[in-house]
Amino acid sequence: CGLPMSMTGWVTTEADHKLEVWRGTTNSGIATTSVGSPGNFAAADGNQFIELNANDVGALYQDFSTPYPTTFTVKFSHRGRGGRLGVGAGGTYDTARVYAGSSAVGNTLALIKTLTPLITVTDNNASWRTYTATYTVPLGQTTTRFAFAAVATASGSSAAGNFLDNIQFTANNSINGTGQIALSCTLDQAT
Question: Residue 17 pLDDT > 90, yes or no?
């Protein structure tokens, strides 16, 4: 794994501004320790994924310009770094929450948690699970922030937990006609 200082489009609330990127393997086996170690996990898609908690509990977010009306669909895969099936209740799963709202809220974890919660996901490290949530942009909100925030980790460590992969945002602006529309175009006009 590595800790790049930035990843295009993504920002972290962690004080050191580092993002932890893991390289997946062809082996999809479960880590042999409760926390896991690099190389013990396959990516859900492609060959790398991120850990939400690089060095501390934090949030990872991205801002989008959003005309009204827009409804976003957020799709992503989540997996715990620690936690196993069959282990007793409590402390055996990683939990993350997705938030959305105005980017004007600010960029600290506490302020991001004031955004609208879209979905809370809880998983152990046995496999990736894919989730979908939707968010409708309110009138007047021209920039929308989507944030993934750590809620809890199976290990209890603030520096280990909540793998994310295959994050996709789809915007639907509801520009639909009621029937077929034929356009005849020339260089200077469309009729």
Answer: no
